[in-house]
Specification:
Layout lengths: L3 E5 L7 H11 L3 E7 H12 L17 E7 L11 H4 L2 H4 L6 H12 L2 E6 L16 H22 L3 E11 L14 H23 L2 E7 L5 H6 L2 H11 L8 H12 L10 E4 L11
Parallel strand pairs: 1-2, 1-4, 2-3, 4-5, 5-6, 6-7
Bound molecules: 1,4-dihydronicotinamide adenine dinucleotide (NAI).
């Protein structure tokens, strides 16, 4: 029987979330996505108008179907957390049930269970600032949107993840090596995410036999990466210095996620899996 996946953090066809959805769909999974509330209207209307049709093509020629798009804001766990200025914000007022707890409840009511949970989202309002110039508010916002969002997502979805299921997030090597320019506490947020991956693997493994891994991905020209401002330089640096000189494609990350979600990876949990043309293994540039 086919698996069902919920992928949080898809709002266009340029990011890792979209590529993961495609690889899972190509492997026969049913696809549900969680889309950031302010990006929901444009994503849904673009989908409807066929703007993504070219990028929906799967290896067998069919088009990826997204069974349902759920509004989601992963910095809020339940309605009591939502401040007045967000509740009354025009971009949020048109949607409902978009806190993490409510989204999980909606998926449960609609489908009963899932097999694969993917977290492909991050946000750091001060990402362009060096850590020394980052405010407490900016640092905590990065951790909230990029790290705790995953703890919360797994906590609320775990009860509906089927036995044998697995969960995957996306991280970046700035967690463990100095990457100047990846600021605002985003390097700290990725370090937390990787540490949490180990602890959550233990807790979700003991509780339900669910596997938890994170993919440390190389640079991709996504919407989020373009906002950081140094993505072209990072792609050039990787081509010049990584063991494999090719540009990384999002599909290569998607295929790794499909492998990690499959029974082929049944003994892999708590891991940071590098999908970066091997750049992480270099000690100096060439
Ligand atoms: P993206 O822009 O496609 O994905 C980020 C998504 O997060 C967007 O859809 C955005 O709407 C969503 N989002 C932001 N705040 C949210 C919130 N509060 N609630 C719900 N959704 C929210 O960009 P990308 O780069 O594909 O990012 C996906 C993941 O990959 C992130 O964790 C990122 O850090 C990671 N990554 C990206 C790399 C790159 O070079 N693009 C390299 C390594 C990791």
């Amino acid at each position: 029987k086919g698996k069902r996946a919920f992928i949080a953090g898809v709002a266009d066809d340029n990011g890792y979330g979209w590529a993961i959805a495609k690889s899972l769909a190509a492997a026969g999974a049913e696809i549900l996505v969680g889309t950031w509330v302010p990006a929901l209207n444009i994503f849904e209307s673009s989908l409807r108008r066929g703007k993504f049709d070219e990028s929906r093509v799967l290896p067998d020629g069919s088009l990826m179907e997204i069974t349902k798009v759920y509004p989601l804001d992963a910095v809020f766990d339940n309605p009591e957390d939502v401040p007045e200025e967000i509740k009354t914000n025009k971009r949020y007022a048109g949607s409902s049930n978009w806190t993490v707890q409510e989204a999980a409840e909606c998926v449960k009511n609609d489908f009963g269970s899932i097999d694969v949970l993917v977290h492909s989202l991050a946000n750091g309002p001060e990402v362009v600032k060096p850590l020394l110039e980052t405010s407490r508010k900016g640092y905590l916002a990065a951790i909230s949107a990029s790290s705790y969002s995953y703890v919360s997502l797994l906590k609320h979805f775990l009860p509906i993840i089927n036995p044998g299921g697995s969960s995957i997030s996306l991280t970046y090597i700035a967690s463990e090596r100095i990457i100047p320019g990846y600021g605002g506490g985003m390097s700290s947020a990725k370090a937390a995410l990787e540490s949490d991956t180990r602890v959550l693997a233990f807790e979700a493994g003991r509780k339900k036999g669910i596997r938890v891994n994170t993919i440390s991905a190389g640079p991709l020209r996504s919407r989020a990466a373009k906002a950081i401002g140094f993505i072209d330089m990072m792609i050039d640096y990787s081509s010049a210095n990584a063991p494999l000189e090719k540009e990384l494609s999002a599909e290569e990350v998607g295929n790794t996620a499909a492998f990690l979600a499959s029974p082929l990876a049944s003994a892999i949990t708590g891991g940071v899996i590098y999908v970066d043309n091997g750049l992480n293994a270099m000690g100096v540039g060439v």
